[in-house]
Amino acid sequence: MTANAASPSTGSPGTAGSAGTAGSNASPTRDAGGRPWTLVAGASLAFLQGAALAGWGVYQIVEGLVSRTHTGVGLTEFGGVIVLLMGLLPLLAGRALLRLRRWGRSPAVLIDTLCLAVTYFGWQTGGAMKAIGVLVGLVGVAGIVLLLHPRSTRALWPEA
Q1: Cβ(107)–Cβ(62) under 8 Å?
Q2: How much is the pLDDT for 34?
Q3: What 3-state class would DSSP assign to 36?
Q4: pTM recorded for the entire structure
Q5: 68 against 132, higher pLDDT
Q6: Residue 39 buriedness (CB in 10 A; 0-12 / 13-18 / 19+)
Q7: How many whole angstroms separate alpha carbon 44 and alpha carbon 53?
Q8: 159, exposed or middle or buried, with CB in 10 Å at 0-12, 13-18, 19+?
């Protein structure tokens, strides 16, 4: 297992595309860019989380602008901008992870960890929020496991 995992990481990421067609160097655990499936799946979850957060932020902004009740003028819109900006973080982190940039893992794991807090408060609320909270928690745990997996770590730090 270590021979398969170590041999593709010795080449540069730009040369991995030719190894995928060679047959002898092809590995089912890596894609054409030389990235392990754990890293690709973790980056995909980061994209999913970023899209969900950004979508929720846009919804809050639009809701605040078209709503007839103006309890706190500008507070809903400001909250929407904050959530929208927070959604950009996992989107950029997922992009960085697919480019094998080390810095992308920390913000992605941070967002995954925040999913666990959402799970706790969803569970406390009860009702349908309990099920949504559990789903968000499972996504968060899956992201943490995928991004901290030894294959992902080896892809981001090949010299270690």
Answers
A1: no
A2: 81
A3: strand
A4: 0.76
A5: 132
A6: buried
A7: 14
A8: exposed
Burial 42-72 (b: 16+ CB within 10 A, else e): bbebbbebbeebbebbeebbeebeeeeeeee
Determine the residue type at 94: G
- Give the Cα separation of 91 and 146 in Å (integer): 17
Q: Which residue has the tokens 């595309």?
A: 17
Kindly report, residue by residue over 111-122, the tens digit of the pLDDT: 999 999 999 999
Amino acid at site 118 = V
- Given a cut of 70, whether residue 96 has pLDDT beyond it is yes
User: Contact at 8 Å (CB) between 111 and 117?
Assistant: no
Percentage of the chain lying above the pLDDT 90 cut: 66
Q: Does residue 75 surpass a pLDDT of 90?
A: no
